[in-house]
């Protein structure tokens, strides 16, 4: 037996979905505008998770260009049937005339390659897929109610899917509006069949403080569904904003080989006030069945700090859990870019990269020269050594990214007069403020740049002369989480390079980027 600490995937891994194949579990999460999209994790015990690939990982599968922050890939569902893995998902916010909406992709190996998307003729978000034991396949999802009886009302629909043509067929059935009268965003639906009965698991209340998980039951897949009198079956909203974990919801159920049941779900861990810079994270709770209904976290009724998993051995260090420390090599699956592949501008070079400086900036909804990883710890040092022979008007360095409108940069800059500086800049709601500067005596030598987070203080340090990094500025982290900025994502730490719209052929070398948690366990 092993005890696993929650969350099982710290950092921005929201909207988890899980399935079991033999003695293996596979899990996917949302990624919004980041590329590659939809990470796939593998575990044999629900305790140790290793990323094996991404569902969306090559040009041509989807077009992200023009997607604003916190748009893109929403709430995937992963299932396995007859030797094939299926993922259904939503692409949100595409420009007019471009494909978008719900789609399905398949693979025989969860590590990929995954097929090109097949678009589904059904609107809304958060699609899920259910394979019934009679051979029929049912797609379901969420959308605003077509005939609402209260503001913000949504509805869950279900419709049969032809697994060969990947086309929806037959009659659509609206089966749920939420467990609570007046509930908004009945979303993230999943269907299951247990002991001959059909169960609908859905979130509601919106994916923030009022988030909750509810369950309903029916004799037929198309309903009518009757809600559990205990609904919501799991929420933290009644515990107040001072709890260590808030916003609990968007659950998915899975049964282990030993017959036990479990749920993965999201939640947020505020710190430094009601701010959760690590984003919505993936948690694990046990589930038991009583009187024909699932009971989440029995005897506790909330997400526990630790969960006992009877069939698991001792936890193994896993990259996805943020327990690795040190240089993040170019081959790591932790790296992401924005809206397009990093191969367009980045070439692996030893432990680091050579970045082709691009005219695109971090403020535009396209693909700038940016490579980042999720912030997974409250206290962490991210350190890069950058060699940047910049032309006038260009810059390169570290970024603490929330979105296009809100981020902090610590960059080597080249002025039009030939002067070079290390400049700390805070962009907040599209307004840029220089919060610190430091001259760089070596025009083309290596510069060490550091972002050191301690709670909500983001200290920005630099060593232009190879010495010990000195403080350039301190940024306020409470302005960088989604409660302050809007949206659905956590903070990314990364490197970038831009000519700020000017034509350029400059190349910048990032000798390495290291990620050093001050404690190797996730924050409490």
Please, could you describe this protein's structure?
The chain has one helix spanning 482-485; strands spanning 2-5, 17-21, 24-28, 34-35, 37-43, 50-56, 72-81, 84-92, 101-107, 118-119, 125-131, 137-144, 154-162, 167-176, 187-194, 197-204, 212-218, 226-227, 234-235, 246-255, 261-268, 281-290, 293-296, 306-309, 326-327, 337-338, 346-349, 352-356, 369-374, 379-387, 395-401, 407-414, 420-428, 431-439, 447-454, 457-463, 470-476, 492-498, 507-517. The longest helix has 4 residues, at 482-485. The chain is an all-beta fold and 524 residues long. 49% of the residues are buried. The chain is globular and about 75 Å long. It folds into 2 domains: 2-321, Glycosyl hydrolase domain, family 43 (Tachylectin-2, Chain A, 5 Propeller); 326-517, Jelly Rolls (Sandwich), CATH 2.60.120.200.
């Amino acid at each position: 037996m092993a005890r696993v600490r929650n969350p099982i995937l710290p950092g921005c891994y929201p909207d988890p979905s899980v399935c079991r194949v033999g003695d293996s579990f596979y899990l996917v999460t949302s990624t919004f505008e980041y590329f590659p999209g939809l990470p796939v994790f593998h575990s044999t015990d629900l305790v140790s998770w290793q990323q094996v690939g991404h569902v969306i990982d090559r040009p041509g599968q989807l077009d992200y260009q023009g997607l604003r922050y916190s748009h893109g890939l929403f709430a995937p569902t992963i299932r396995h049937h007859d030797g094939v893995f299926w993922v259904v998902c939503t692409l949100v916010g595409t420009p007019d005339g471009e494909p978008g909406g719900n789609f399905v992709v398949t693979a025989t190996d969860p590590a990929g390659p995954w097929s090109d998307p097949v678009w589904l003729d059904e609107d809304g978000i958060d699609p899920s897929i259910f394979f019934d034991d009679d051979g029929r396949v049912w797609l379901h999802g969420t959308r605003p109610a077509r005939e609402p009886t209260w503001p913000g009302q949504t509805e869950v629909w279900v419709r049969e899917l032809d697994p060969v043509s990947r086309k929806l067929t037959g009659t659509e059935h609206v089966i749920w509006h939420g467990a609570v009268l007046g509930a908004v965003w009945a979303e993230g639906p999943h269907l299951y069949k247990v002991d001959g009965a059909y169960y609908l698991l859905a979130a509601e209340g919106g994916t923030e403080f009022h988030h909750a998980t509810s369950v309903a039951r029916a004799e037929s897949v198309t309903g009518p569904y009757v809600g559990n009198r205990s609904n919501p079956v799991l929420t933290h909203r009644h515990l107040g904003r001072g709890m260590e974990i808030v916003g609990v919801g968007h659950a998915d159920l899975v049964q282990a080989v030993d017959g036990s049941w479990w749920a993965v779900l999201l939640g947020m861990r505020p710190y430094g006030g009601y701010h959760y810079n690590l984003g919505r994270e993936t948690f694990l709770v046990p589930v038991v069945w009583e009187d024909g209904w699932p009971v989440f976290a029995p005897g506790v009724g909330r997400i526990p700090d630790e969960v006992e998993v009877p069939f698991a051995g001792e936890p193994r260090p896993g990259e996805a859990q943020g327990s690795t420390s040190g240089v993040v090599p170019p081959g790591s699956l932790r790296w992401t870019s924005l809206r397009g592949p990093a191969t367009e501008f980045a070439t692996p070079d030893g432990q680091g990269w050579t970045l082709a400086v691009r005219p695109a900036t971090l403020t535009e909804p396209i693909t700038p020269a940016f490579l980042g990883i999720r912030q997974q710890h409250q206290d962490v040092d991210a350190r890069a050594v950058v060699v940047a022979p910049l032309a006038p008007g260009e810059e390169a360095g570290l970024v603490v990214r929330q979105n296009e409108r809100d981020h902090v940069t610590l960059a080597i800059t080249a002025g039009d007069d030939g002067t070079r500086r290390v400049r700390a800049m805070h962009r907040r709601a599209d307004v840029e403020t220089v919060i610190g500067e430091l001259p760089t005596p070596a025009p083309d030598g290596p510069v060490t740049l550091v972002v050191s987070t301690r709670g909500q203080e983001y200290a920005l340090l630099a060593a232009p002369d190879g010495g010990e990094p000195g403080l350039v500025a301190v940024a306020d982290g409470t302005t960088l989480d989604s409660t302050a900025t809007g949206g659905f994502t956590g903070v990314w730490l990364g490197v970038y390079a831009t000519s700020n719209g000017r034509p350029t052929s400059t190349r910048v070398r990032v000798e390495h980027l290291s990620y050093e948690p001050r404690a190797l366990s996730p924050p409490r």
